[in-house]
Amino acid sequence: MTTSLKLNIPTVAPRGSPAFAQALKACCAITAFQADQVQFCKSTDAAVSLEAPKEGVKIVDINAIVRYLGRVGGAGFKAERAPDDAWIEWEELVLRPRISELETVLDLAEKLLGKSGITAAVSPAQIILFSTLYDSTAGASPSILDKHPLLKTWLRKTLDSEWAIEGIQKAATMTTVAPVDNSSSKAVKGAVGTAEKVAKKPVVVGTVADRKVEGGIEMKVYGDGEKILPVPGQRNILITSALPYVNNVPHLGNIIGSVLSADVYSRYCKARNYNCLYVCGTDEYGTATETKALEEKVTPRELCDKYNALHQAVYKWFNIGFDHFGRTTTPEQTEIAQDIFLKLHKNGYLSEDSITQLYCEEHNGFLADRYVEGTCPKCGYDDARGDQCDKCGTLLDPMELLKPRCKLDNSTPIVRPTKHIYLELGKLQPKEEEWFNKSATEGAWARNGKMITESWLKEGLQKRAITRDLSWGTPLPKEGFEDYQKKVLYVWFDACIGYVSITATYTKEWERWWKDPENVRLYQFMGKDNVPFHSVIFPSSQLGTGDKWTMVNHISTTEYLQYEGGKFSKSRNVGVFGNNAEETGIPPDVWRFYLLSSRPETGDTQFIWRDFIYKNNSELLARLGNFVNRLVKFAIAKYEGLVPDYATAGSDPAFDGFKADVNKLLKEYVEELEAVHIRAGTESLMHVAQRGNQFIQDNKLDNSTFAAEPAKTAAVVGLGLNLIYLLSALSYPYMPGTAESIARQLNAPLRRIPDTWEMDLKVGHRIGAAEYLFSMIDLKKEGEWQSKYGGDKKTEEALKVVEKKKKADKKAKRKEAVGKKGEGSAAASGGAVPN
């Protein structure tokens, strides 16, 4: 068996030329016989040639190449292979010296078909004859094939076969193609043996040369080195996602809780052509870093470098489109944090106090919060940290812990006095409260973000220490704080300033983003445990400086994503972590869609393998993937890859109803995303795809309709292709790789999300080659993945929770819809809405 073949394809092969017919034969043979070992190579020669280095031969006769590929193809065939003696007479016909007259070829083929019958089996002879007829009859008068009805039936049937469709796509992609000049009979005559000039203007598929698309639809793309900056009078959106610590590998819950959710909104804003900057980075200072560095026996800097690179690799695989991903251990962080600190001191919002703090006699040092573990005084959890209980979420002081222990050596610490600097949050509460009430209302914060903040304010803000006894952190300013040079800024005060300093490492004009509240809207994404730092402490610090800061306009928060009925745990090998997702071989877009469609917005949600597989197979593949693939292949097979004339779409009331439905769904999608309803957007996206499926089913898009109602079929295909183009834009925030694939298939630029759906692909626009968007996942994978990634084996129970949650969400939506309808009726009548 030959293991490596080199197929040389001419780069100049206009549609209707002998070179294109040869390329088509070769591509169909490779597809039909699964000759995956063949390597395509561009060639300046006028004919296709095949090199078989192992056998030391070079084949230049295209029919011989097809027969050779049939002999050395892969172990299986995409089509049933014809018996060796079934097509002997076909072999005699197609392999004899070339017949230049098409009529003679058709007559002979018709007689042989009548004698041997039509079969789905494939042979080299069939591939050769099909390619010859497809290429040579493309520009011919329909009457030529009408004289040979049996052959016409065979050709149409073969056009529907997978190997023929993929072969045509490959040939179109590999070569230079051009529309056939239908006015010239020369396009038919001699197509088998002599070259004729049938192309007025050859174009390369995949370039802009043959694009007929509406102007101004492109999504704005920034060039290399071009900085994204706000523009006065335009929509300017600044987006941040909670900065991940550099002491772990992010799991799926971490990813959906911050960076992925923020990425969706960032991509949505960019697809609307807003000026949008998305920044993130690793949170590198603090006790957590020092502790992990001690565990791994490296310096804190070495640890930060390691995990910064690890996080970036994970996010890159998930296709998180940061405009800038930085880190907090920078000179910019020191400068900006110290400036905020000094302004708070100047304005009377800092104080000094002596406190008692836990001290470890074993290694002679005061213990910062995360160096202390013990029992939570609120819920009794015996593995609470000194700053927070992971079980109940309560923020703690190490002195509050029951049975405290040193994390480094497990010894029992003692209490000693020490001095720290405090932020007087109580003094800042009136300013904070006034700002919060305005921002949470105007920015329509997520419900849990509002509730957590309200609970803090209701209890009354207390002063909190903003220094710690550590060596790894932002140093305090020297002037006036000489007695504190062995202390650093506490990470909960310091971390949110990282958003500002990371922006400063992106552009020296960072203040245009961070000190222009009239012109910039700030959106921040995080898990619920991070809310107080973003809604109370950081805003209070901004207000206390007296500077004119851009402050958060909308806080988008999530609850927790559980894994198969339990918790993610790296130590117990339970759950999928960022680097595990790639190991499964499932593309990033499938992971993104599933996580976003399960986003824990109003309560905890479950990651369940069975549900993951279902989402891929029944939604992504069945609704979106099949819709796109079916229409693109149909357009390539029936219309030579050109958008057909859909003029009749304007005169059919059914088509008007379809367009109205799509525009209604588009409006709902935009409204959901503008309100940062991330999960609801996935539902709106699939509703649009499903409406497209219903459209082609209602209009019975198939070969018989194509023959009986050509004008209607052209309208259906034209509208369908334009809907696919819209779907590429709606998919972009959630599945950017899918959006890019659709754009390639349509040979069109990435487009913006419009307010109204229009026909942006014009008649005559040449599309590209078809690609599969999604693949079926075998249900057997559920057990394999459960075994590999652990779990509490509570899948059935977790599934019930998921179904219960889905029903509750549907009920809430119906209630909301009824409420909106009632409000509309009341407003129209001037009456009040009943309770």
Automatic annotation (TrEMBL):
Annotated GO MF terms: ATP binding; methionine-tRNA ligase activity
Basic residues compositional bias, start-end: 804-814
Comp. bias regions, Low complexity: 824-835
A UniProt-annotated Pfam family: tRNA-synt_1g
Record's subcellular location: Cytoplasm
One GO term describing the cellular component: cytosol
Segments of this protein annotated with the region Disordered: 804-835
InterPro entries from the UniProt entry: aa-tRNA-synth_I_CS (IPR001412), Anticodon_Met (IPR041872), Met-tRNA_ligase_1 (IPR023458), Met-tRNA_synth (IPR014758), Methionyl/Leucyl_tRNA_Synth (IPR015413), MetRS_core (IPR033911), MetRS_Zn (IPR029038), Rossmann-like_a/b/a_fold (IPR014729)
Main enzyme class: ligase
Keyword Aminoacyl-tRNA synthetase part of the UniProt annotation: yes
Domain Methionyl-tRNA synthetase anticodon-binding: 657-793
UniProt name for this protein: methionine--tRNA ligase
Catalytic activity: tRNA(Met) + L-methionine + ATP = L-methionyl-tRNA(Met) + AMP + diphosphate
Keyword flag Ligase: yes
Keywords: Aminoacyl-tRNA synthetase, ATP-binding, Cytoplasm, Ligase, Nucleotide-binding, Protein biosynthesis
GO biological process, one term: methionyl-tRNA aminoacylation
SUPFAM superfamilies per the UniProt record, alphabetical: Anticodon-binding domain of a subclass of class I aminoacyl-tRNA synthetases, Methionyl-tRNA synthetase (MetRS), Zn-domain, Nucleotidylyl transferase
UniProt source species: Arthrobotrys flagrans (Nematode-trapping fungus)
Family in the record: Belongs to the class-I aminoacyl-tRNA synthetase family.
EC annotation from Swiss-Prot or TrEMBL: 6.1.1.10
Residues annotated as domain Methionyl/Leucyl tRNA synthetase: 237-631
